[in-house]
Write a structure and sequence with these properties.
Shape: globular
Strand content: under 5%
Radius of gyration: 24 Å
Number of strands: 0
Largest sheet: none
Helix content: over 70%
Distance between the termini: 31 Å
Length: 322
């Protein structure tokens, strides 16, 4: 590596990301719209289950009429309400939402890369289809890199779920420290490999090549880069916490209403759509900020572009002055 460039502040990267998305907002809107709609449909069963339980709680047994012999023991209806959607089906929907969130990251990276190298079709729809084709050609390699990035953190989370029943206190104590060490190692591994997906889209570095490239970018400036990534993740999680909280609150409000007015599928879907929109738009926003940071890190690095036209890499992030 050559001399390391000076990194900008976290909020300068975020402000520049706003400009990147606003410059081509129509394309981003068309590209993200199908993913938002599918994500909202996957979130809808959770809201309907919650509303169904609340409706039954407020009017227990109101919709159930039947005859039974008086000798049979009485079983109260409260607590016997079955969810509208089975837990295994909800798990499938949750995994789908997670995959869609990563897909948002991929299509945004592809869209910004195409814009930077000056490749653009006439018409928003044609450009959106071209972005999807490019993302489709990278989807398997992208998810493989995401899997490798999350492997260690996933193992750490899995270990946290293990409870040793009846074990001696020192075993529980040792297990606790092992789990804590794995959790810290997982977080550090994720930060070291954070830019692997960017390396895939912008420089064609697949699998372990992308992971090693990300590690090289972080070397000797890990803490400086990490502070910016942590700010990105903290702000992103803050936005999504508000969206998730609003989703739950509105669902709780609609539950009692549904007890008297029936199930408000359309209204609930609108709430889902708003929550997923916030999640995916903020994901796009922080992906754009990550691109700015990634390109500052790769200044002076010998890199092989994805294609000949990809040599037109955007200059480093400009400051907010002017």
């Amino acid at each position: 590596m050559n001399s390391q460039p000076r990194l900008k502040g976290s909020f300068i990267y975020l402000a520049n990301a706003v400009n990147d998305l606003r410059a081509n907002w129509a394309t981003f809107a068309v590209v993200l719209a199908p993913l938002v709609i599918i994500g909202a449909l996957c979130l809808l069963p959770d809201a309907l289950n919650l509303q169904h339980q609340l409706a039954e709680k407020f009017t227990p047994g109101a919709r159930n009429v039947g005859w039974s012999p008086i000798q049979e023991p009485y079983t109260p209806l409260a607590g016997a309400t079955k969810p509208m959607f089975a837990p295994w089906l909800l798990s499938i929907f949750h995994v789908t939402i997670l995959l869609l969130t990563f897909a948002v990251n991929l299509v945004v990276l592809c869209a910004i890369r195409r814009d930077q190298v000056g490749i653009r079709h006439d018409g928003v729809m044609n450009e959106a289809l071209a972005i999807y084709r490019e993302a489709g050609s990278l989807i398997l390699a992208f998810y493989w890199i995401v899997f490798l990035q999350l492997l260690v953190p996933g193992i750490a989370v899995f270990l946290l779920q293990i409870n040793v029943v009846g074990a001696q206190s020192w075993i529980e104590f040792a297990l606790y420290f092992i789990e804590l060490a794995m959790l810290i190692a997982g977080a550090l591994a994720y930060l070291w490999l954070y830019f692997a997906r960017y390396a895939l889209v912008f420089h064609g570095k697949r699998s372990f090549h992308g992971l090693l490239f990300s590690r090289d970018l972080m070397r000797k400036r890990f803490f400086r880069v990490t502070t910016r990534i942590v700010v990105f993740l903290a702000v992103w999680s803050g936005y999504n916490s508000w969206a998730a909280g609003s989703f739950v609150v509105v669902s709780l409000i609609l539950g009692p209403v549904g007890a008297f007015a029936g199930y408000l599928w359309g209204t609930i879907f609108v709430v889902d759509l708003a929550a997923i929109t916030v999640t995916y738009v903020t994901a796009a926003f922080f992906a754009a900020a990550g691109i700015r940071l990634y390109q500052d890190l790769t200044v002076g690095v010998d890199r092989t572009p994805v294609a000949a036209t990809a040599e037109m890499i955007q200059p480093p992030s400009a400051s907010l002055s002017g």
